[in-house]
Amino acid sequence: MSYKSLKIGKHTIKIPIVQGGMGVGISWDKLAGNVSKEGGLGVISSVGTGYYKDKKFIQKAISDRPYEATNFYSKDALKQIFKNARKICGNAPLASNVLYAINDYGRVVTDSCEAGADIIITGAGLPTNMPEFTKDFPDVALVPIVSSAKALKIICKRWTQRYDRVPDAVIVEGPLSGGHQGFTYEQCFDEAYKLENLIAPILEEIKKWGDFPLIAAGGIWDKNDIDRFLSLGCSGVQMGTRFIGTHECDAHENFKEILLSSKEEDIKLFKSPVGYPARGVKTNLFKKIEEGSAPKIKCISNCVAPCHRGVEAKAVGYCIADRLSDAFMGEKENGLFFTGSNGYRLNELISVKELMNKLVNGEES
Fold first, then answer.
1. How many CB atoms lie within 10 A of CB 38?
2. Per-residue pLDDT tens for 165-196?
3. Sign of the CA dihedral 48, 53, 58, 60?
4. Contact of 61 with 338, CB cutoff 8 Å
């Protein structure tokens, strides 16, 4: 079965597979560039760009970590990441994922447009003012991530009133995804909030505002999953964790090794300074948090607004910016390793080309 292309605003993605944006440094130029090259939509994470190329783009560091949001979300590094991704994929569409919860959200959206993003994807909050920061870039498509029809309604209402526009596509992310969830801990295990049960109400809401594609995300693993969600009325899917199992993924080899050796029972939901439950591999870091021997929280990078400059980090026992960047640098002891619920199913590293072939033609192809 060949898939219909996915149209997002003025941009056409040949294969309706969006690679999830994974920060810090898991989806940068190599992964995103190769996904776009192979016909999907490569998504560059704008989170933690100050760590790119051994931190050579940051203006100021303290304890060898990017100081303040200006350096943690480095404009120069983001520009270089896009430039290097373009060398791989040419003019194929490329997206930037910018979390709504970050400090400097508006600036990073504009930085992404200036760096050459064709599409901006935003989750971790309701981006009611997203179009504000792209008004000088009319060709850039805007794609919010939602977890309910109600959330989409709020976004469409605000965007229509303020900017006379609606999203170019919307991603619905169910509670099996990696990293931060748009649900409470209890909702993550409630049948009513399963991804397949979120689709129909959101499709109904889309009809009230126009005709733009719905992309399903969270726990999608193989061609069977893709076919199932397309049959439910989605126009495409977003997949993150599966792409970590590729040679081109920008993650450290130790990061990949931790996922490859993980078992189903190792993948847990835990509290995050961002205020949402987050999913990852339960490593030695969490034992240290319980014992009170985890690294001290200094809030050097001031990465996300809901953390209130380290207040929430102290409440949950770890700094998310420091621990995610440790994972990116391969620090097994103190790193935080995000994964979707299916991460334990990764058992080998393959090329992006081979993975895309499996997703389109089936695992045996």
1. 24
2. 999 999 999 999 999 898 989 988 999 999 99
3. positive
4. no
- Measured distance CA(211)–CA(199) in Å, rounded: 15
**DSSP for 294-348?**
SPPP---S--BGGGTTTHHHHHHTS-HHHHHHHHHTT-TTT---B--TTGGG---
pLDDT at 257: 97
What is the percent of the chain with per-residue pLDDT over 70, rounded to a whole number? 99
Helix 29-37 / helix 75-89 crossing angle, nearest 10 deg: 30
What pLDDT is stored for residue 289 in this prediction?
A: 85
Burial 89-108 (b: 16+ CB within 10 A, else e): beebbbbbbbbbbbbbbebb
Considering the entire predicted model, what is its pTM? 0.96
Distance of CA 136 to CAs 79, 131, 133, 152, Å? 17, 10, 8, 24
* Token digits of residue 226: 């893709």
Three-state DSSP at 179 gives: strand
Cα separation of 320 and 135, whole Å?
Answer: 31
Q: Domains of the chain (ranges plus CATH)?
A: 6-56+66-255+345-361 (3.20.20.70)
Residue pLDDT, tens place only, 222-265: 999 999 999 999 999 999 999 999 999 999 999 999 999 999 99
Taking a C-beta distance cutoff of 8 angstroms, is the pair 343, 219 a contact? Answer: no
328-347: average pLDDT: 95
pLDDT value at residue 1:
55
SS3 (DSSP) at 106: helix
Question: Whose CA is closest to 112, among 91, 131, 140?
Answer: 140
Cα gap 153→133, rounded to integer Å = 21
Contact 50, 70 (CB under 8 A): no
What residue spans of the chain are helical by DSSP H?
29-37, 68-72, 75-89, 105-115, 149-163, 195-209, 223-231, 241-244, 253-260, 284-291, 311-316, 320-328, 352-361
